Amino acid sequence: MLLDLSKLFGRSKNSKDLAKERLKLVLIHDRANVSPQFLEMVKGEIIKVISNYMDVDEDSLDIQMTRTRSEEGDRIVPALVANIPIKSVKNSGK
Amino acid sequence: MSEVIVITSGKGGVGKTTTTANIGTGLALQGKKVVLIDTDIGLRNLDVVMGLENRIVYDLVDVIEGNCRLKQALIKDKRFEGLHLVPAAQTRDKSAVNPEGMISLCEELRKEFDYILVDCPAGIEQGFKNAIAGADRAIVVTTPEVSAVRDADRIIGLLEANDLRDQRLLINRVRPDMVKRGDMMSIDDIIDILAIDLIGVVPDDEKIIISTNKGEPAVTDNKSLAGEAYRGIARRIMGEDVPILNLQEEDGLMFKIKRFFGIKVN
Fold it and tell me: What DSSP state is assigned to residue B136?
């Protein structure tokens, strides 16, 4: 009864959601284990190129190794996912 | 055309050996010629799960080292036409086998058998490398637990790094009641995280322990839900289009009958 009440007030979370959340976080680290230096190098080069055209938020730039379904959707391929927040686009780039 | 399939998981105790025994027996029941190879040297178990422990004379290491002919190490399962076992050595360690030895053994077995199932040891060291060396396909076994899913993810990455890209996921020991109340990750949750195709789902079934006690794979038990799941998986491996077992059927009539009689629904 207590459990149901707390659910009703939206306070408790299913333990499976907790499991999923924790797994996703730990896998980001596991998968990025290509070697942190390698990812840092890639990150540095990407920033260098993009900076020629736009101002990016280097601090919140996020780059990860993950997996995704291929274009044809028939197999799983490794993917490099980069989230690069843009502050502004430079005039020379327009 | 024959296929070498490795059954692997990373984590120990998720049911690799039980899976190998049941899928292998399931394939034999479908009329296929099947051989099971136990590569867990030093910790052999496939023989007891299959109930063939009293028939071992030669083992995998004897074959690889040339102490006997391959035929002499093949234990024929008299209960199921076409089913054979190559047991692991118990008094040696993983270094007694190398990937080259496994590749040539698999090539040799391809001439005789439709399916060669390789039961992989836990871990990612030598034993794992040996087990995957000759394989065309992999079945990654996991359970709906954080630790098992994490290790499965690592194994998927390692298989890919070794160019073994034909991988399918088997989710073992699913408890529909726990999934329903949100205390166990669902099939979709796990597929979402691992991004790999499913070969099947096996419910947590006490019949598995009973059948292991007897040395008779549950796949032969028509009353066992896990057995039914394994029969479907065997047919899916053969390329048949069999729907994944719907575990939510527990909600149906059986569930109500069990509850009506006050039987604990696990």
Answer: S
Nearest CA in chain B to A30: B154
Cβ-Cβ contacts under 8 Å, A23 against chain B? 146, 149-150, 193
The residues spanned by each domain of chain B are: 3-260
| Cα of B230 vs its chain's centroid, Å | 9
User: What is the CATH architecture assignment of B3-260?
Assistant: 3-Layer(aba) Sandwich (3.40)
Phi, psi of B254 (to 5 degrees): -55, -45
Residues 6+ apart with CB under 8 A from A15: B182, B183
When divided into structural domains, chain A yields a total of 1
Q: Is A25 on the interface with B (CB under 8 A)?
A: no
How does DSSP classify residue B82? T
Residue type present at position B151: D
Token pair 């669902």 in the structure block, residue? B186
Residue A70 sits in which domain range? Answer: 35-94
- What is the residue-level pLDDT of chain A in tens, covering all 94 positions? 455 554 555 546 799 999 998 998 888 778 766 666 777 888 888 888 988 899 888 888 888 777 777 777 666 667 788 888 888 888 765 5
Whether A24 maps to a domain, the answer reads no
Backbone φ, ψ for residue A93 (5° rounding) = -85, -10
**Whole-number Å distance between alpha carbons of A58 and A46:** 11
Q: What residue has token string 């009689």?
A: B261
- Residue A86: phi and psi, rounded to 5, are -100, 130
Q: Do A14 and B182 touch (CB under 8 A)?
A: yes
The distance of Cα B91 from the centroid of its chain, to the nearest Å, equals: 23
Residue A64 domain flag:
yes
Q: What is the pLDDT of residue A76?
A: 62
Q: Is A5 inside any structural domain?
A: no
In-domain check, residue A9 = no
